[in-house]
Amino acid sequence: MGRTVVVAEKPSVGRDIARVLKCTQRGQGCLIGQDYTVTWAVGHLVTLVEPDELDEKYKRWQFDTLPILPEDIPLKVIRQSADQYKVVRDLINAADTDRLICATDAGREGELIFRYIYHKAKCKKPFDRLWISSMTDEAISEGFRTIQPGEKYDGLYRSAQCRSQADWLVGMNASRAFTLRYDTLLSVGRVQTPTLALLVKRRKEIEDFKPEEYATVTADFGDYKGVWFDPKFDPDTHIPKISDAKAIAEGLKGRTGTVKSAETTRKKDAPPQLFDLTSLQRDANRLLGFTADKTLKTAQSLYETRKAITYPRTDSRHLPPDMIPRVVQTMKLLPAAYQPLVPPALPGGKLPVSKRTVDETKVTDHHAIIPTAQRVNPEAFSPDEKQLYDMIARRMLAAFYPAHEYDATKVITVVPGNAREHTFRTTGKVVIVNGWRDVAELGEPPAAKSSKGKGKKKNAEEDETPLPPLSPGDTRIVQKTEVKEDKTKPPSHHNDASLLAAMEHAGREIEDEELARQMKGMGIGTPATRASIIERLLQVGYAQRKGKQLIATDKGMQLIAIMPQEIASPEMTGRWELALEQITGGKQDAEKFMDSIRKFSTFLVNYARNNRAAVEFPDDARRKKRRQSLVSRGTPVDDCICPVCKKGSVLENDRTFFCAAAADGCHFTLWKDCLTKGGGPELNARLVQLLLSNQVVRGSTGVITIDGKQIAYFPHGSQTATAYRPLTYTKK
Q1: Which phi and psi angles does 475 have, rounded to 5°?
Q2: Distance between CA 35 and CA 251 in Å, rounded?
Q3: Do 394 and 423 have their domain in common?
Q4: Cα separation of 49 and 66, whole Å?
Q5: Cα(685)–Cα(101) distance, rounded to whole angstroms?
Q6: Confidence of residue 462 (pLDDT cuts 50, 70, 90)
Q7: Which of 48, 66, 483, 695 lies 20 to 30 Å (CA to CA) from residue 366?
Q8: Which structural domain, as residue segments, surrounds residue 353?
Q9: Residue 157 annotated in active site
Q10: Once rounded to an integer, what is the mean pLDDT over residues 307-330?
């Protein structure tokens, strides 16, 4: 029997798999056992080539070579990890290797990592797929017992390949085209640009916001209070004119109010759903102040290194039915601090199951994030790991707790005024069953709290107090009134939590869970990539952090101003993501999708080429470096100072005269042949000296003039210039 080579994504994962397979002998970039050899990538070992590696003509960025639309984009080995690629290549192609196992991360990107290595190495050997959701020894062993043939995941690979090539085509073409058009290095992407558009939209909403004054009126009836509202526009409590609010308040003092209605309704708050990655990132940002990237890295560490949680890069908030015994076992093995919270989640020793937690139809590649069924010691974790593990453990417990039940009372009191009757609303709440709120507020230190769930962040209704017994017809005297003046407030800048929510739903603000479920797969990016998209916007200077806020920079605002709606639209990007999901499931043709991407890339190039939007980007490093090189090669023209900035000296090269301050942003440029098409002479150093000294030079055929704005040539006897050129030149 031949040897089986297992390819993991990272060395740490490879070592865990090797331990289970008893591969103990160290090799170069691998671990060797009796029947298995375990090797690993270090992330991506193989990627798509750069345009200039396709053809030398693409080394120079120019419109003549756009769009770049190869039928096939070749693969190349990443130089920094070439040694490990050779190790993997030689192992999978070795004569005694007759079987491979793909053990990269069980998701779209992990599939791409293995397949790119496989194809670049020109390997033809059969391979199977290890698909696991936790890194415990038990889960790895179970994964090998239920290993699947590699072709089962061909759809996932096609989707990953389409995503990779689509990002290449759109990014390479759009970035080059808009960079050339605006002479500033601009990064444009299929996913990052619509994400930026969300930040730009929010900044514009805030900048354009005009606050409006309003007031609210509260009446004190002695043993309860009520807030004025307009029954025609319930629940609007805002009174636009401050004077009207004061008049209402003044006119009600000492009057008798009558209870018009008093209704009590039993209500239930369902337990929270289990975490997927995006909801975990949002809550960690809200409660712990973690960025999306920090949450992902911490969760990945809990998964890979600590073996404490299941696979974090999931978009599912549900579990399959066969996980029920595992969840019971997990709860029993939680650290001691959580054990007092376990019994209500396991009434009678059984797990209470509902469609909110257990539903196989809503489990995608991986189930929801929960702790693993093994004992861990959170005291050995880093502070960040400890806090995030606490959130995940408490969320699992809370998800299986009873609903939070309470009686909600709504009282309407009417008070006669001078001109009309005024209506006041009062609400109260009495908790009947605290339910899942007995699990302390997510994000608190792991203490066995069961004292009515007094967490740091209360539900809005928890501020309401029980009301006295009230019935229709009861009367009360208005003891006093209070007017509170305020102004409408603009929306807040996005933070990681709100931006992730907007990305998840392609820019739509969706609170309805059913509608969110219907839109699943139509977001911007995937749970695994959204954090890196946000970090990319920060890296290229399109966004900045201010505390927890994410704010579009001026450069980011300018970029969206010159982008067509088609690439700035979150909805269009959402449709692309849905198409990629459908390719995974075999419901969409991959080549049809790629054809649409090629057409879109052509559209972007043409749009940039013909765009006349007057946007001036600040000097960037690329442009400054080019101008510094230009200045270093220039020859000074004696006794000539730039007529535009009045500071730099005039330099000459084989085509132009320009300013020595070009690297600092001066755009003075005189092309030597700028007058020849109108019958004038070609400029030389002596002619430029005379022009800048005298502003006028008369020759045998005509007159040349120069001022602070332009140079012009007038033939003898003519009052009209036949050639002229502005003194400042920026590339169009």
Answers
A1: -120, 155
A2: 91
A3: no
A4: 17
A5: 72
A6: very low
A7: 48
A8: 277-402
A9: no
A10: 94
Cβ atoms of 409 and 263 closer than 8 Å:
yes
Q: Where are the beta strands (DSSP E) in 331-453?
A: 404-416, 421-433
CATH of the domain at 142: 3.40.50.140
Token digits for 371? 């702790």
pLDDT tens by residue, 260-281: 999 999 999 999 999 999 999 9
Residues 291 and 359 in one domain: yes
Domain count, the chain: 5
Sheet bearing 669-671, strands edge to edge: 635-641, 649-652, 656-659, 669-671
Cα(281)–Cα(289) distance, rounded to whole angstroms? Answer: 10
Residue from 311, 338, 406, 542 carrying the catalytic annotation? 311
Strand, coil or helix: 594: helix
Amino acid at 606: N
509 or 26, which is more confident = 26
Report the pLDDT value the prediction gives residue 634, as an integer from 0 to 100: 87
Rounded to whole angstroms, the Cα distance separating 184 from 178 reads 8
Contacts of 337 (CB under 8 A, 6+ apart): 378, 446, 447, 448
**Residue 715 has which token pair?**
């033939």
Average pLDDT over residues 716-732: 78
pLDDT confidence of 463, banded at 50, 70, 90?
very low
Q: Are residues 12 and 142 part of one domain? A: yes
Tell me: the pLDDT tens digits for 627-652?
A: 677 778 888 998 899 998 888 899 99
Give me the pLDDT at residue 464, please: 60
Measured torsion, CA atoms of residues 529, 533, 536, 542, in degrees rounded to the nearest 10: 180
pLDDT at 725: 85
Phi, psi (rounded to 5 degrees) for 13: -70, -40
Which residue in this structure is represented by tokens 């007094």?
A: 454
Indicate the Cα dihedral angle 251, 254, 260, 265, nearest 10°.
110
Can you read off the two tokens belonging to residue 246?
Answer: 């004061």
